[in-house]
Amino acid sequence: MDFSSSKVQKQDRPKFSLLHLLFLNSISLFFIIIFSIVFFIYTIILNIYLKLKIGKSYGGVVPPRDLIFFLPDVSVCHITTVAYARCDKKIDMVKRVKEIIQEKIFDFPDNYPKLTSSTHSFHGYYFTKKYDCNVNDVVKEIHLDKNKELTEEFLKKYTAKVTNAEFGKNGSVLWDIHVGPCPIKETQNGVYRYPIISRFHHSIADGTSLVNLIIHVFGDKGCENYGKKIFEKVLKKQSSGKQRKSFSEWVEANVVNLIKMTSVYMELLFVSAGKYVAKSHLRSQDVNALHGKLLTGEKLCAWVAEDTVECIPMVKRIKNKTKTQFMCVVSTAVAASLSNYFKRNDLPIPEDMSGLIAVLLDYPDV
Q: Which residue stretches of the chain are H helix?
């Protein structure tokens, strides 16, 4: 794609020197250490109080790694997937999904503490109550108006409506599944397709863990540990690396890794906190034709279903050929798509747009 003739929208981004970053880092670290000590003591006191007040159903305060997803924002931080259950005959899909969820999850609540608990706020913190939801709180029927047919277009609008809605039980249950009461109108080779919209708060799952959970719940017995095996395989592959053939190569690799790790820790200690403050709190707001300075929080949904699986294998081939990462290929494709949208509508293309990618560092505990 050639965007050389397109108009460019300049973004006013403040530039910070290394001295500025060091100063911001020093101030930030000071406050981070003070706040960490205060909140550590506060958490202990709060934990003891809630345990005495709530009793056996108390599930504990939400850990810091999940607490970040509860920070106030213009919209709820969750992830939504749309899948189709294919059948060769019409069935009561809502009833069947409830039976599966009950059998796989709610019959074993201790194996899925986040999925079978509710989450509540208390004086700036969040805590969970165990065994505080059931299958009827989670599995819901896609509501169709009278004489309304379930089509792809209706499903997209309904999914957008779901993503903008509050979770069940006044927002305390952090996941739900919406199931079509009838197959979608457009049939494929006589196969009935029932839409299933799954929505999970980001403190419960990211994209990878959500797909793995769906495979585990709706798959057969061979899929019970599918997600964990895949995740452990990926981590093992990342940590093991390539086998070195000689002692000199082993020494060279370890020296390079030592230098890299030293630079990483030096950056974490002296620069990272300052970078975070500069990029998150001191940067100017994004301004482009898609949205203004203030976001509304409203989400729009659109997708295209592939008849054959081609996109993911193509991304992998590009990744391997260019020796880059999966997300680099996807981000480049998204940037090109957005640029093409601006050009097609005769709008100026912004120099850059802010984005955030959540990184999963451990196998999710749902």
A: 18-54, 64-67, 93-101, 135-138, 152-164, 168-171, 207-218, 226-240, 247-270, 272-280, 311-322, 326-344
pLDDT reported for residue 176:
94
Neighbours of 271 (CB within 10 A): 16
Question: Per this entry, what is the length of the chain?
Answer: 366
Residue type, 252: E
What predicted TM-score, i.e. pTM, was given to this entire model? Answer: 0.73
Q: Please write the tens of the pLDDT for every residue from 73-95.
A: 777 778 888 888 888 888 999 99
Can you list the pairs that 116-124 forms with residues at least 24 positions away whose Cβ atoms lie under 8 Å?
117/59, 118/169, 118/172, 118/173, 119/62, 119/172, 119/173, 119/174, 119/203, 120/172, 121/70, 122/46, 122/50, 123/46
- Contacts of 97-101 with CB under 8 Å at 24 or more apart are 97/139, 97/177, 97/179, 97/196, 98/135, 98/136, 98/139, 100/217, 100/218, 101/135, 101/138, 101/139, 101/177, 101/217
State how far the Cα of 151 lies from the Cα of 116, in Å rounded to an integer.
32
3-state secondary structure of 245: coil
CA distance linking residue 105 with residue 135, whole number of Å: 9
Domains (range + CATH), the chain: 77-117+131-235 (3.30.559), 306-353 (no CATH)
List C-alpha distances in Å: 198 to 146, 175, 201, 218, 357. Answer: 24, 8, 10, 12, 20
For 363, residues 6+ apart whose C-beta sits below 8 A from its C-beta are 209, 227, 228, 231, 232
Three-point CA angle 50, 53, 54, nearest 5°: 80
pLDDT digits (tens, 9 = 90+) for 2-25: 566 667 777 666 777 878 888 888
* Angle, alpha carbons 281-199-64 (nearest 5°): 45
Q: Which residues of the chain have pLDDT under 50?
A: none
